[in-house]
Amino acid sequence: MGPCSEDPHLCWASWLLGFSSLLLNVCSTGVKSPGAHDAGGHDSGSYVSLKGIRGGSVWFHVTKESGTELEEIVWAFGPAIKYTVMLKVRNRSEETPTWVNLQDKYMQRVYVPNMTSLRIENLTREDSGQYQAHVILTGGMESHQIFYLTVYEPVPLPQIQVQSVSTTPGWCNITLECRAAGVTEDLNVTWESKDLPRELEPARNSWTLAVSLPLSQHNASLTCVVSNSKDRKTVTSSLGKVCAHGEYNMPEERGTVIAQGALGSEDSEFFSPPCLSAPPQPGHPLQESGRHIQLVSALK
To answer: What SUPFAM superfamilies does the entry give (predicted)?
Structure first.
């Protein structure tokens, strides 16, 4: 009679230990580190994450071990189980690619400056996806390198609007909203401050910020930073100017734009009192990032 019939708890513990050991063996054989070789001499593959901006360019670089010689690289687009071969590059062929498929989509935008590099220009959102380089080495060795490309929209130029402004003895109370026109997918926003009290509390809505500014702090400013994983734009507002003019004009001019991003510059500052019709005059860019007072929050 075995131990299980004598002690059911001992039987259960023994079975659980055996199952755990089997599970660990399956996991250890099913997961390979990048660059590991299987029994057939094939590289299990390495994975590279790439990011680009629509209209920009991106580089794909194939890595090879020291002492090896490349015979051919085959570039493909699409998932591993259903990919489309784009082109082939053979050694000693002056790196001139031989196109196989997808010429209409890529041929005018893809450049192969050398054996181990490929560049895509004028990126579109449709270029996002998986690319792979099938590398054939002398002696029959092969490897696969996988690239995951994500193409983001350029971050639109932001602007700061005054939602409300009021004064109490010694204080100016302001509610500002940072806005970004156009596509706002995957955008994050942060507020940075200069010469503001430490006790300032950020608003719950990351795109809107309420502050109370001592009237004695004329040089205080706020910078709205709008970004995604690849691009960022900023705009800075002088709070002293808002308080100086807002007490008389803002109750009737709710929502007035006081600062907006400028083309060609990430840091710009504009101010035009609501009672004036003259165009906004440029101020000075923010020279220091200041202290973050708004947590990053993705736009939903």
So the answer is: Immunoglobulin
